[in-house]
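Q: What does the assembled structure look like for these inputs?
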Amino acid sequence: MSSAAQTATGGAARQRASAAVARRRRRRRTAVGWGFAAPWTILFVVFLAGPILASLVMSFTDFGLRDLRNPVGTNIIGLDNYVQLLGDPVFLQAAGNTAYFVVAGVPLTLAAGLLAALGLNRAVLRFRTLFRVGYYLPVVTSIVAIAVIWRFLLHPDLGLINLLLGLVQIDGPNWLANPVLAMPAIIAMAVWRNLGFVMVIFLAGLQGVPADLYEASRIDGASTWDEFRYVTWPLLRPTTLFAAVITSIGYLQLFEEPYVMTAGGPLNRTLSVSMYLYEQGFGFLHLGYAAAIAYALFVAIAVLTVLQFRVLRSQT
Amino acid sequence: MTTQRRRRALAALALTLLLVACGTNDEAAESAAPVEGPASGELTVWAMGAEGEALGVLAEAFTAENPEVTVNVTPIAWDVAHDRLITAIAGNETPDVTQLGSTWAGEFAGTGALEPVPDTIDSGAFFDGIWETNLVEDTAYGVPWYVETRLLYYRTDIAEAAGITEPPTTWDELFTMAQAMKEEGGAENGISLTVGTGSWQNYLPFVWSNGGDVTAEDGTFSLDSPEAVEALEYYDSFFEAGLVSPQPEGFDITPAFVQGTYPMFFSGPWHLALVEEAGGEDFADKWAIAPMPAGDSATSFVGGSNLAVFEGSENRDAAWKFVEFLTRPEIQAQWFAEVGALPSVESAWEEEALSGDEQLSTFGEQLQDAKSPPSISTWEEVASTIDDQVEQVTQGDTPPADGAAAMQESAVSIGTGGE
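A:
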């Protein structure tokens, strides 16, 4: 063997060796990476991905009371749960109620939040921080506590709202027991509770609007309305999208407010999809059917979110 | 709100992933008698609400009699009790003995998790109405612990102002009295009748008193029988006449009764203490209780709690002995003194603590004519459809006959849970 060949062989061996080292190092780095990711991954798989998959499978079965002690003994019934959903008048009513809540509640919450943000964004206002805290406080208060308090406020005889109406000689209605007024009362409460969150988002958005744009528009002779219409509003688009998506997702899962305030009544007028799901799943143990309702709700949330992205996506 | 969803998903996981041993689902009418001699070993007992807090006292008495036994009482709040039991059954982590709501036997026996009652327990010792709440297809799965039944509470002073001195004994008299109390007695409403969740407990006594029932003799639903329709018409007539105004969620009848806005209502024995406390001393002579007014009969609702032993309990002998202990007349009387729970054992009513009290004996008499809904595994669901239709009829425009027909239709489609 020539020395050249020897060198070549040696070089190849060295190369192989260094490649092996690199591989080992990479493997170790991968292992370390997974190690760091493991706490989240394991929790995700066990507590989120697993149940999500399990409930998807469950939605194609008639899993119920009798299967509790022997879950594998349940019957696969294909799409029957979903077919049944479409013909279930109570579910359809719950879906209608939820849609009503979202369609009326989301724009109102956004408008109220935007108004509050515009007002509080003006530097001239005194006690600005106090007002911000005031608007935000309901957001961080327990929803159940708020719902209980509002139930008192809306009480037909002793409630503050009807007492105030009484001062101006108006005989206030029995809000939560009235089939027509119960949902608007709940919407009003939800708007009041959630506008603080939307306000904070909009405040951040408003601070991102460059001041020179306002200056330029003022030089061009724009009125306050023009300024809002042609400068502020277009630049707030991504902020609006975010606020709309987050609020809609929350509102579609309406649960605690009617659960505490009306128990879904009167005449099922405030029954939400989440409440019906809870009733079917944990009241009557129709877990298969409840899983199907959960997936129907999931699809509704996904569709609405996609729609909002389509409509509100920044056009720049 | 996302935590809500996550929690639901978690529950779903728990149910699917936990593979549990399949219980023996034999159709034996009763299980073997517990072995003779004193109880020993460890016993886990779940009890709800005030009973859970106070049961320790009786557990001590039981331990004094059976020194070898250790009784661990786990108090559970009523509002989570149902879910806790379901989770325990799914996870095969059941206690030895549990307290059960009187309408739960059908549902839990349906899971195959309860052990049939051995013949050492004498069924004849209990009030029939409450014993029957434990019967699922003629097999008893629980033993009555205490009972309650519903009576009419009414304001004697408002009645007198309206010219009425005697409690109503018939349906007509009840209606006239409600009318008089509102129109002449000056009360805002004539009576309180419940609407919404749980209103079946208020409505069904009228069906029973009119000769109707939830199910006919052959076990099929009879919620739209002519007797039931008539009862629903009667129930609705109070609303039609404007004698009941709708009550908000979380409504508390006690202060309204004391204020006189609702001068009559139906409720159980717990309201004796509540009304006394809310009314104070001056109020004592302004109210009274009376038995159910009669239609064909004067049948009330019987509720209460039962005791059940789980299939697969490692200490079933001690479990049944503890149940037997809790249903002895003297222990039942002691339990009444402790928490005010009315004895399910008839002979316990002869004990001094109960026999001397006039109000209590009215309850005791009513218990002779009191019924409960059938123990079917789908009862909660059927009850909710009754609640719905009672609401549709009294608050909406649905005529009683249509409401009863709708009850019947959904009940039939829900079924009785038998396969």
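The CA atoms of residues 238 and 313 of chain A lie 7 Å apart.
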